[in-house]
Amino acid sequence: MKPYSVAVVGIGMVGSEMLKVLNERQFPADPLRVLATREREETIAGRTYQVEVATKEAFRDVDIALFAGTEGSRGASQTYGWKAVELGATVIDNGDDFRMDPRVPLVIPEVNPEHLETHQGFVANPNCSTIQMVMILAPLHKAAGLKRVVVSTYQAVSGTGRAAVTELREQAPTALEGALCEPKVYPHPIAFNCIPQVSSLKEEFPGYYGEEIKMIKEPRKILELPDLPVSATCVRVPVFNAHAEAINIELQEKLTVDEARKILAESPGIEVVDDPGQSGYPTPLDASGKDPVYVGRIREDSSVENGLDLWVVSDNIRKGAALNAVQIAERLVDMGKV
Q1: pLDDT of 53-75, one tens digit each?
Q2: Which residues of the chain form beta strands (DSSP E)?
Q3: Which domains does the chain show, CATH number per domain?
Q4: 75's torsion region: left (phi>0), alpha (psi -120 to 50) or beta?
Q5: pLDDT for 104-116, tens place per residue?
Q6: Contacts of 198 (CB under 8 A, 6+ apart)
Q7: CA gap 189, 168 in Å, rounded
């Protein structure tokens, strides 16, 4: 495979993970450059990178630009994304600036790779919570048709970035001593607490926070179901890494638990862990640092016709961001679309 000039934009938690995933999967990146707001050296997974300052000209001769879109680099694609495309780069953006832009395909490679066929040089990664949910929804929709989705998320602090991870680590011993924790990153203490707010309120859906709106709108675009009813409640929990979701779905046709379990087990990128009698179900500790989306607690919802309840866990930094972006790059290379 011929080498491609690759630039990773942003060196926060997602950017660092992108570099790790590129190396682990032996993506043919040569050269592999890192762009950020200031020059410095960074050592990640035993490799030292010379970080360059991001400018428009830095994207000249870049084949693939991966925008990390987190921890201060959010909005970088708004500044440089389309300029990089003008200079010949294919942009894969983990940020949320262009996800709903009609020019930009919103892609999970296991779900809708065909949307890459008509890309205009710019591809978006879905939201981390959307990715793990749609990975589960897509094969069930293909088998029986989706009618309605209700999801509650339990989201790790790594989704907010390094400062939030530090805040949880520092607050925990303070809370154990019975002292008050002063929140900085979140509006309330996160240690031993749950905060039903991820992002800010939006006028578009009154009463819903931004993360919940992403989970309403993004699946509709990915699955090409513009009228799919979705309701989401997103909660930040005192977990360092990996998001969990309780998903309730109504289907057009009935699927038994055994049928759903078989469909999911045969779907790429999914691992079924479903033995509730032996406490067999996925947890964030199980999923952290791993590639798959894990699903368990698969059961029929007796309150509606053709209903299923599922418990889904995935590493939000890995499959929810870095890995999905690299998989998009791999698929584009395979398709000859770079």
Answers
A1: 999 999 999 999 999 985 344 57
A2: 4-9, 29-36, 40-44, 47-53, 64-67, 90-93, 122-124, 146-155, 230-236, 243-251, 270-272, 293-301, 307-314
A3: 4-125+321-335 (3.40.50.720), 130-316 (3.30.360.10)
A4: left
A5: 999 999 999 999 9
A6: 153, 155, 159, 209, 210, 211, 212, 234, 235, 236
A7: 8
Coil, strand or helix: which one is 52?
A: strand
Rounded CA gap, 226 and 220, in Å?
5
How many other C-beta atoms lie within 10 A of the C-beta of residue 173? Answer: 11
CB 135 within 8 A of CB 327: no
Active site residues: 128, 243
* Tokens 């509730």, located at residue: 276
pTM over the 0.90 mark = yes
Rounded Cα distance, 334 and 327, in Å: 10
- Dihedral sign, Cα of residue 222, residue 102, residue 35, residue 335: positive
